[in-house]
């Protein structure tokens, strides 16, 4: 059985490929042949995502869509989540979620198999709803915090994301130690996103 691994992170600073190794091991342990790995840095609140759409276009009936957790696949509104499930059903794709064991078992036509399919569908819906609500609450907390700051000080403006000096120094040291290493290899050694490595390299280049 072929598996299509989908990896997602919300921002460019996050490492979308963080779970790649774990999912490859999972696929191997469950006799799944990995057809392709799709990775993107994009919000999970929208259904229309380039790599997800490419996966859905390329996957064949009977293939598996493998993700680390439901929130990597969806933080969408109920209508979009229902649309995605319909697409999976129409294309006859099986969704396996690494941290949701009920999805690991192939449903059959027995009574117990049909019952498990119903339970699994309910758990997927519940988990997707929790992921969406968690995202909405986080956004609302940030909005309230910013509003409170501005109310207390009308002249205040957000400082922006600060550079992690220790991480940047670590990346610089790795780049110096392994000059022929790729950005992916450096990001793995530094335990950071590839985008951060590129920013460090750009800053070093500008210093020359």
TrEMBL record:
Domain Resolvase/invertase-type recombinase catalytic residues, every copy: 2-153
Residues at the active site: 10
Coiled-coil ranges from the UniProt annotation: none
Keyword terms, alphabetized: DNA integration, DNA recombination, DNA-binding
Cell division found in the keyword field: no
InterPro entries: Recombinase_CS, Resolv_N, Resolvase-like_N_sf, SSR_resolvase
One Pfam assignment: Resolvase
Protein name: Recombinase family protein
